[in-house]
Specification:
This protein has 936 residues and is an alpha/beta fold. Helix content is 64%, strand content 14%.
Length: 936
């Protein structure tokens, strides 16, 4: 056969094939072809099914049993871990949140976790009858029951212990208070009682046998000292026995808890290994099943590849045969469609054969006839469109149509109502005319990217009216496409949700912010602190948490009224906010409590500087309704990560320190440190020595004279306390006076100072010396005594000394703690005839409007200004201003810390009245002062 005849032969065969296929319907041809393909496919599937029979059995075991056991074992392990976590959470927080709240919050979760484990063990037993697995699940169930019983017993014991006003702690606290009321002013027994309280708290905090033993010793010492007590001795003895009995019950309960803890720890140790064995065994069986399944899948895959090739070849052959049959009919149908599209509705197709294209030809002929009839119906459709137009125009929903470039072509009446623009003002404009500036460029880029891809864009959009007001709409922008699929218009539909959005925003605001100060509330503060800790852990930076409480705020409320109290809280919050850096947070966490988180702290020194800045900001006078109010605050500070790992622990530790600051005199800040117990112990030891020092007459007075600036004649002298300790020698006042003030011993020591100073004056006068007035220093703790005026008056009367020979001196900051109280006490002291000095003037925050109301005689200029007066122009200007201020208010000035002749000369030129310092005289014992007085 010649090569050139091959195309003719193939063409002839194709023609015959087309004629042959036209004898049958297209459906029949396709059915025959696909039936052959399906038959081969079924044969291949049966072969694949046979080869994968073993894989199905393996997977059945995997899916029904082993995998389920593995999941249940892992779920049980996680539940056990959570139970232990909640158990520890209860122990960590029951003292902070209260026993009932901590039990409800955490122990209920533990019981839920245990119930989950029991249910998992039950399901495992239902899955298999393997004796080993059944034994293991039964062992877990038994251990869980033991753990639950022991845990509930332990929780009940913690409820017996209580905290502060509940349980045994509450009983002990109540008994101690009752004893304290009966002791009145017996300081030895009060000290013994204080020692018992400390030992009790040491044991509660550390749970050490040595602390319990120390408590018993303190109790025995109290009982021994009680023997010499007079009034109500038996009542006190009965109370101390009840107090000690409660403590012993507390110790016994702690021992019970220890034993119970051993029991449930033993149960836990029995549970976890069994759960691990269940998980490891089931996981090993699952791994083996997966390996077998992979091998089988490889074999099945190879079979499917071979079968697929056969199916592909057969399908291609069937496709060629059918396509040749279809192509001719398609070409003829296309030509007919083009004639109809050009308006030739009279054109018709000639049907051929018996296949579906014959049916299609008949249908197309009917279509042409139908189009002729539809011309009349077209007019009716136009009328319906008018109705639709009226409906769109009258809709309450926003409907706006633009072309593809965004130029507005149509707006309904609702758009005019919502935007305030007339339709004529909007047609031809771009929708950016409504742009509010509330959305960034990324928002608009996302909008255009979505609609240009042919998808609808939905979002809540903030628009701006013609008047400038903002309004919110829920907007849907839908692309409209032509017959080719090209976008030709955009339809924007929307509902006005302005009021709904405002309500949602208000609810969200109230959930996270304090309505009075508009600061974050405690919930938002904790949430932000969690986030800040996560960032700080990543950046390896520190965080500082401040718990701030306004001192004596209840007194401020009572004095100025709750309305002004609210204004003070608002101004206080603003003051804190203005003192912070970007990124820091201030929140109102309680009635008069605020929390501050300082982020991105690089060192401890930075925390101190920021705390100082906040403290100085608070100390500035507040002007409320035209009146100046001085506030102070107590601040507790904790630092991340050394003082806590999470937000709750950090805030709790800061609150603890803040309460300590309030108890120790307020108007201060203090950090939480890890060695606080050691410092507390040192404090107790020093307090005991100071208590004995007063009894053993170890205190003595030195006197530092101050002199007339012009004549250098002695104008007065300041009595200075010294402690001559047998153990340490002469101790600096800076080391022990703060302890006296914190413990309240300064009250008794202050009385001793006053009597000793007046007694020394009496002695010098008896020798005929011309003595100047003696100044006695008073601390803020002494000044707050309600009977201070009576004490001074009685002491002077008993000493038979002229009140003019005594001067009262206190620091500027102490004067300003409570202005009204200060004025009433100073008026009483002045009435007695005693002079009044302000010490360290210039370093505090005195308001001149209050200063002029106080009956002050002398201002002592702080040593920090005198030290730099010769070389620092600013210091000299400050000193000059203070002297002028004092003289204008009919007061005299005393410059302290004068150490050079040059300083003395400058003070003379500035007209300072008196000077005091090492240049003229150091503090001297009484005998040295006596020689000076005798020589004068």
């Amino acid at each position: 056969m010649k090569t050139e005849n091959v195309p003719n032969i193939l063409g002839s065969l194709q023609g015959r094939l087309v004629l042959f296929t036209n004898r049958f319907s297209l459906k029949g041809v396709l059915f025959a072809g696909f039936a052959a393909v399906i038959l081969l496919g079924l044969t291949t599937a049966l072969l694949a099914e046979w080869t994968s029979y073993r894989a199905d059995r393996t997977m059945d075991r995997f899916m029904r049993v082993d995998n389920k056991i593995s999941d249940l074992s892992l779920k049980s392990s996680i539940a056990m871990t959570n139970a232990r976590k909640h158990e520890k959470d209860f122990l960590l927080t029951y003292r902070e949140f209260g026993f009932n709240e901590a039990r409800a919050r955490y122990i209920s979760r533990v019981l839920t976790n245990l119930a989950d484990i029991r249910e998992s063990m039950k399901q495992i037993r239902l899955l298999t009858d393997d004796p080993q697995i059944v034994k293991q699940t039964n062992a877990v169930g038994k251990a869980i029951d033991q753990y639950q019983v022991s845990l509930l017993r332990m929780v009940e014991r913690y409820g017996v212990l209580g905290f502060r006003d509940t349980g045994l702690e509450g009983v002990m606290r109540g008994k101690a208070h009752d004893i304290g009321k009966l002791l009145k002013q017996d300081y030895l027994l009060l000290h013994d009682l204080l020692e018992m309280r400390r030992r009790e708290k040491d044991f509660i905090m550390r749970i050490r046998d040595i602390d319990a033993a120390e408590f018993r010793k303190a109790s025995d010492r109290f009982t021994a000292d009680l023997a010499g007590y007079g009034e109500r001795k038996e009542d006190i003895r009965q109370l101390i026995l009840e107090y000690r009995s409660s403590f012993e019950k507390y110790v016994f309960t702690i021992e019970e808890i220890r034993e119970i803890r051993k029991s449930f720890l033993k149960s836990v140790q029995a549970i976890e290994p069994v759960l691990d064995q269940l998980y490891i065994g089931s996981f090993a069986r699952v791994t083996e099943a997966l390996e077998n399944m992979k091998k089988t899948e490889v074999l099945v895959g190879r079979i499917k590849i071979v079968a697929g090739l056969f199916i592909l070849i057969l399908s291609l052959a069937a496709a060629v045969a059918v396509s040749r049959s279809i192509s001719g009919s398609v070409i003829e149908s296309k030509s007919f469609a083009e004639r109809v599209a050009s308006g030739d509705l009279a054109s018709r197709l000639t049907p051929r054969g018996r296949n579906e294209f014959t049916t299609l030809s008949l249908a197309l002929n009917q279509m042409a006839e139908s189009l002729q009839r539809n011309k009349a119906e077209h007019r009716k459709a136009e009328e319906e469109m008018k109705k639709l137009s009226f409906a769109v125009e009258g809709s309450s929903d926003w409907i706006l149509i633009t072309d593809r470039d965004g130029k507005i072509e149509y707006v309904n009446h609702a758009v005019e109502e919502m935007s305030g623009y007339d339709k004529e003002e909007l047609i031809g404009q771009n929708p950016r005319i409504f742009k509010s500036g509330k959305h960034d460029e990324q928002f608009y880029e996302g909008l255009w990217d979505t609609i240009l891809l042919g998808s609808a864009f939905r979002a809540i959009v903030t628009n701006r009216k013609k008047t400038g007001e903002l309004f919110e709409i829920f907007n849907t922008i839908t692309p409209l496409k032509d017959e080719k699929g090209d976008i030709i218009h955009f339809v924007s539909t929307a509902k006005d949700i302005t009021q709904q959005k405002l309500l949602e925003d208000k609810l969200q605001y109230l959930a996270n912010y304090d309505s009075l100060t508009e600061l974050p509330n405690k919930n938002l503060f904790i949430d932000r602190l969690h986030q800040t800790i996560a960032r700080a852990e990543y950046n390896k930076r520190l965080i500082t948490i401040l718990s701030i409480d306004i001192d004596k705020f209840s007194f401020i409320n009572d004095t100025f009224g709750s309305g002004r109290g609210d204004k003070i809280l608002q101004e206080f919050g603003k003051r804190l906010f203005s003192a912070l850096r970007d990124g820091d947070t201030v929140a109102r966490t309680g009635s008069d409590e605020f929390g501050v988180s300082l982020i991105d702290i690089s060192s401890f020194e930075d925390s101190v500087m920021l705390a100082e800045k906040i403290m100085n900001s608070i100390r500035q006078p507040f002007r409320i309704d035209g009146e100046e109010i001085i506030l102070t605050a107590s601040i507790g500070i904790s630092c991340y990560p050394q003082d806590g790992k999470d937000a709750f622990e950090l805030l709790k530790n800061a609150n603890m320190v803040m309460l300590k600051v309030k108890a120790s005199g307020m108007n201060n800040y203090q950090f939480y440190t890890d060695d606080i117990n050691k410092k507390a112990a040192e404090f107790v030891r020093l307090e005991r020595r100071l208590f004995n020092a007063l009894k053993n007459d170890e205190f003595l007075l030195y006197y530092q004279p101050y002199f007339d600036t012009d004549t250098t004649g002695m104008s007065g002298m300041e009595a200075l306390l010294r402690w001559n300790s047998p153990e340490f020698g002469l101790v600096s006042p800076g080391e022990f006076i703060p302890v006296l003030e914190e413990t309240g011993l300064i009250i008794d020591v202050g009385r001793w100072i006053l009597k000793a100073a007046l007694g020394q004056l009496k002695e010098w006068q008896g020798r005929g010396y011309m003595t100047p007035p003696v100044t006695v220093n008073f601390s803020a703790v002494q000044f707050r005594q309600k009977n201070l005026g009576d004490l001074l008056e009685k002491t002077i009367r008993d000493s038979d000394i002229d009140p003019k020979m005594l001067a009262f001196e206190m620091t500027e900051s102490a004067f300003m703690q409570d202005v009204e109280f200060t004025k009433s006490v100073l008026d009483r002291i002045k009435k007695v005839g005693i002079s009044i000095n302000i010490d360290d003037f210039g370093t505090g925050y005195s308001s001149l409007s209050y200063l002029k109301k106080f009956p002050i005689d002398n201002l002592k200029i702080d040593i920090s200004f005198i030290r730099g007066i010769a070389g620092n122009r600013d210091d000299a200007e400050i000193v000059s201003t203070i002297i002028s201020l004092a003289h204008n208010l009919n007061m005299k000035t005393i410059a302290e810390g004068v150490e050079t002749e040059e300083q003395l000369k400058i003070l003379r030129r500035l007209r300072c009245d008196m000077v005091q310092g090492y240049y003229l005289s150091r503090p001297l014992p009484p005998e040295e002062i006596g020689k000076m007085l005798k020589g004068s």
